[in-house]
Amino acid sequence: MPAGLVKKQKRKEGYRDPKHSRSIASAQWKTPSQPLVTTYGETYYDLPGGGQHPFETLEQALYRELLEETGYSICVGRFAAMLEEIARNPKMRENYPAYAHRILHIFHADLAADTPVQPSETDFQQQESLWVPLAEADRLVFRPQLLCGQISRLCQENAVFLGSCFSDYPE
Questions:
Q1: If I label 72, which of 65, 89, 132, 144 is the partner at 20 to 30 A Cα–Cα?
Q2: Going from the N-terminus, what domains does the chain have, and what CATH number goes with each?
Q3: pLDDT digits (tens, 9 = 90+) for 44-71
Q4: Rounded CA gap, 61 and 25, in Å?
């Protein structure tokens, strides 16, 4: 299951499935020597962030998601990258349509406070958030796979389109 997966019956009030794709806001730190990553077991990593609610800006979504999942309050910076992920698994598409076609918008961010509060709503299977050296971050297994080996590239000045990919995640 992809990061941030929420089963249909556990969705927040006011949340509705998109008809086509779901926007996801993720953070890449302006001070890139040690980016913050989220661990999902020993299987994979992800940039912290999550889904945009109806009528919520990407910046608002990123601020809310980071506070909920990591406890960190942030200042959202410039746009860094975008990528698209589409699930191939028919059961994934049927059971979790909001996660079967995702468009990730990655922004630079700075910490607004050095000390986090207790995370209030972590993702399904999320274990922890870690600050990792940049060189190590480029060697981690990320989902979506297009992030693998790209974390240092996201620190560059120019925004990049990382591409589109089809994923074969199990249901």
A1: 144
A2: 19-113+120-167 (3.90.79.10)
A3: 999 999 999 999 999 999 999 999 999 9
A4: 6
